[in-house]
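// run 5 | inverse folding | seed 20
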């Protein structure tokens, strides 16, 4: 499980030096992160900076690195659980959303661009490739970090489609502070994986290669995929979540195991294992990261004891958990 956890404080002098390198009009201190995640959970960041374009994003990350301040790049917060005590260091909220459309189907999107906006525009222009990911909250950066995925179109739904299939190039700020454009091979895409899990490179922009599509088919895919989600997933507007909590177990399904041991609908504090999909936990209001971690542990222990399967989390843990981390 990728974690960006740290409980020890960052020296005030380092934070001040980092802050001095950032545009003060976009910088704030002690900002609660909960509203910036789809789970609506998480305490304050020491420093919170809104990067407005790819260069600004690179500058902010470099400022943190140069001053020894831990840095976390935040997209829509749709795949992370932030600790109740927040993040010690700098959180860069990625609002770099510039997009350039080319006539040949290539589109360059800064990494803070929201995938839903790209889909709307691509379908409007008759380009195919992004429509499969409709209804999934994600920035472009989050999508390449995790290699966003969904099932191929109905009725067959015979395979998992991965965003890597349409990625042509990724502009990075590398772990060595270099600006570099890389191809798919460098990204080492896998299921729920890219090289960004193991190297602190930052995606600044991505070029996608789309294909001409029949508007009627594109709209059909949008409708069918949204209907699939509407029927199988809790609605984010009413039930904040971060999608699937546990990794897929081929042919078995983590959700099915949790259901089998009788935990569907189980509640701890403000967190609940969804009634309609047991691999999704929802915030019923006022849930804490501690509630979610306790629920994760309970599900792991009960599933192991009663079925023999070890279920592992696929979400990222970010920030200060004051020592209360799950087992895997
Ligand atoms: C209701 C719901 C349904 C979902 N369904 C699916 C689904 O069907 N398929 C699927 O694949 N996922 C699904 N997810 C998970 C989530 O939408 C994806 O993982 C998404 O890509 C997260 O993007 P984000 O911008 O919110 O990233 P965040 O959650 O903000 O960040 C996730 C990780 O990416 C890193 N990151 C973000 N931007 C950058 C960058 N520019 N450079 C380097 N690292 C970066 C962050 O540092 C962090 O480690 C679902 C989530 C929800 C809430």
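// decoded
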């Amino acid at each position: 499980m990728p974690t960006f956890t740290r409980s020890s404080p960052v020296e005030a002098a380092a934070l001040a030096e980092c802050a001095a390198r950032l545009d003060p009009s976009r910088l704030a201190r002690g900002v609660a992160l909960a509203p910036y995640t789809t789970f609506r959970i998480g305490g304050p960041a020491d420093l919170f900076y809104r990067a407005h374009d790819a260069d600004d994003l690179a500058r902010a990350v470099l400022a943190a690195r140069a001053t020894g301040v831990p840095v976390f790049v935040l997209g829509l917060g749709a795949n992370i659980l932030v600790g109740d005590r927040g993040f010690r260091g700098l959180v860069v909220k990625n609002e770099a959303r510039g997009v350039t459309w080319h006539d040949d189907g290539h589109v360059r999107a800064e990494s803070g661009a929201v995938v839903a906006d790209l889909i709307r525009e691509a379908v409007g222009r008759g380009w195919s490739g992004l429509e499969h990911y409709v209804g999934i909250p994600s920035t472009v950066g989050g999508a390449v970090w995790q290699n966003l995925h969904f099932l191929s179109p109905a009725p067959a739904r015979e395979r998992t489609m991965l965003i890597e299939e349409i990625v042509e190039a990724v502009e990075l700020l590398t772990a060595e502070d270099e600006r570099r454009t890389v191809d798919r091979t460098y990204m080492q895409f896998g299921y729920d994986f890219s090289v960004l899990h193991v190297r602190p490179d930052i995606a600044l922009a991505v070029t996608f290669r789309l294909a001409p599509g029949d508007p009627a088919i594109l709209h059909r895919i949008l409708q069918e995929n949204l209907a699939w989600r509407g029927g199988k997933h809790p609605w984010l507007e009413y039930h904040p979540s971060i999608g699937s909590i546990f990794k897929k177990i081929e042919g078995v399904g983590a959700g099915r195991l949790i259901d089998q041991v009788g935990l569907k609908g189980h509640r701890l504090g403000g967190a609940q294992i969804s009634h309609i999909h047991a691999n999704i936990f929802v915030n019923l209001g006022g849930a804490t990261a501690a509630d979610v971690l306790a629920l994760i542990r309970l599900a792991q222990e009960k599933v192991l004891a009663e079925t023999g399967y070890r279920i592992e989390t696929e979400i990222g843990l970010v920030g200060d958990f004051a020592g209360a981390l799950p087992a895997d």
